[in-house]
Amino acid sequence: MGHGTVKQPQAKVNKQVPTTGSTHKHTGSSQKQHGGKPGGSGEKPAPPPKVAPGRTMGREKAIIWEDDNDVDFEDITFVVPIVISVIILLVFFLRKYIRWTVPCQSSNRIDGKTVVITGANTGIGRATATELARRGGRVVMGCRDRKKGEAVAIQIRTKTHNPDVYCYELDLASLTSIKEFVDDFNNREPTLHVLINNAAYMGPQSTTMDGYERCFGVNYLGHFYLTYLLKDKLRRGAPSRVINLISDTYSKARLNFDDLPLTPYDIKQAYARSKLCMVMFTSELHRRLAGDIIHVYGVHPGWVCTDILRNWPGVAGNILRTVSRVLFKSPEDGSQTVLFCAVGEKMREMSGKVLENCNIFKVKNYAKDREQCERLWNLSLNLCGLESDIPADKRDPGEKGPPAAVQDVGPREAEPKKEK
Ligand SMILES: NC(=O)c1ccc[n+]([C@@H]2O[C@H](COP(=O)([O-])OP(=O)(O)OC[C@H]3O[C@@H](n4cnc5c(N)ncnc54)[C@H](OP(=O)(O)O)[C@@H]3O)[C@@H](O)[C@H]2O)c1
């Protein structure tokens, strides 16, 4: 071993070279060479050579270095396995913690129900679309890249034996594309039961076709516009549900209404801000749609290994993607709370709330601030060129239970499967 060959010649040096008493280990050998113990009957021991304070002689340096190295070598053989074991244990428990998932307990089928999922060609959206198709839903995937989306739709149809899986073109970075998607949908589908606002962008600074900062435009404003245009179909499908994908990073953001382009731009801030808007949108939409028996949920899926980090540039991006592959949840696990909100029973009380692991996730007060949420709503109407026809429900959002019109609506029951 390399270490052994280093050690031997050093040991030789230790024997031959007298020391000056600067380390007491060598003082003894020095004393012996000069005739025994100090203060004994022999000659007076030679005084140590004079060295300026703070300086050492060349040979002395070699010996001190060798002694330190001896100690390090022994320490390292002992410490390294401990450090490695501790790191492995930490990674193991961190991975367990991050991947901890409460699965959707409901086995409800959704035969005959129509579901729209944005960004369903990959990640959590794809896993959700697959499971909802397996449960008999009529699944409409809104995908930016039609070809990619069609290919995934074919795979889901084959896997789940459900022929009712379709891909429509939808680019959330374009208000025109969103309008076309809704027109297409309205022509083909009579009702909508579940809308899942899932798609998201995270990456370098960029703008939508309409000139808005891309995270804000795709993750929030596009979904705002889509939901607004689909509200009549949701009313027809009532009791229906809107599920907004949010992220716990929302708490790192502040919304400055006077700085929508976000200067200076920062990937994390832009993404977090768009998710803060989704949290605020969830509260406000609940206030406005509860009367129509349309329930609204926010979902934080946890940290999930998907393509969401694909646009993160540089070394940081590579590190994050590698870490996510090792530590994060699978898209199937990440989709459990979305499924719970889509098919679960007794969900009425949870409308307007954010959930994680099939349970309420406490949201910071400023993200539910009524005035701010209303301000964002009005700004969004303005940015999309809309006029509101959804009156704000003046109930206190903290008030328990739905308004009178909703009281007698029980959990949605799975309809019997249609004969084909
Ligand atoms: N992964 C996580 O750890 C995590 C954590 C918290 C929250 N979330 C949220 O979960 C949701 C799903 O994310 P994911 O992790 O599954 O990410 P993903 O794998 O990157 O999926 C995002 C989807 O959004 C689509 N998309 C992006 N820009 C679009 C646009 N302009 N128009 C239409 N679709 C667009 C993508 O389509 P293309 O493939 O064509 O780009 C893709 O299908 C997101 O809302 C995300 O913020 C994820």
General description of the model:
The chain is an alpha/beta fold. It has 2 domains: 75 residues, no CATH class; 289 residues, Rossmann fold, CATH 3.40.50.720. Helix content is 46%, strand content 9%. It contains 12 helices and 8 strands. The protein has an 8-stranded mixed β-sheet with strand order 3-2-1-4-5-6-7-8, sandwiched between helices. A hairpin with a 2-residue loop joins β7 and β8. α6 runs parallel beside α7 and α7 runs parallel beside α8. The chain is globular, with a radius of gyration of 33 Å. The protein starts with a helix and ends in a 37-residue tail after the last helix. NADP nicotinamide-adenine-dinucleotide phosphate binds next to α4.
Supply the key terms.
single chain; 420 residues; alpha/beta; Rossmann fold; 2 domains; 8-stranded mixed sheet; 12 helices; 9% strand; disordered N terminus; disordered C terminus; binds NADP nicotinamide-adenine-dinucleotide phosphate
Question: Which helices and strands appear, and what pairs or packs with what?
Answer:
Layout lengths: L1 H15 L7 H10 L24 H42 L14 E5 L4 H12 L3 E6 L2 H15 L4 E5 L5 H14 L5 E4 L16 H23 L3 E6 L21 H23 L4 E6 L14 H14 L3 H4 L1 H8 L10 E3 L2 E2 L9 H14 L37
Parallel strand pairs: 1-2, 1-4, 2-3, 4-5, 5-6, 6-7
Antiparallel strand pairs: 7-8
Order of secondary-structure elements: HHHEHEHEHEHEHEHHHEEH
Q: Separation of termini?
A: 74 Å
SS class = alpha/beta
The level 1 CATH classification of the largest domain is: Alpha Beta
CATH architecture of the largest domain: 3-Layer(aba) Sandwich
Helix segment tally: 12
User: What's the CATH H-level homologous superfamily of the largest domain?
Assistant: NAD(P)-binding Rossmann-like Domain
Radius of gyration over all CA atoms, rounded: 33 Å
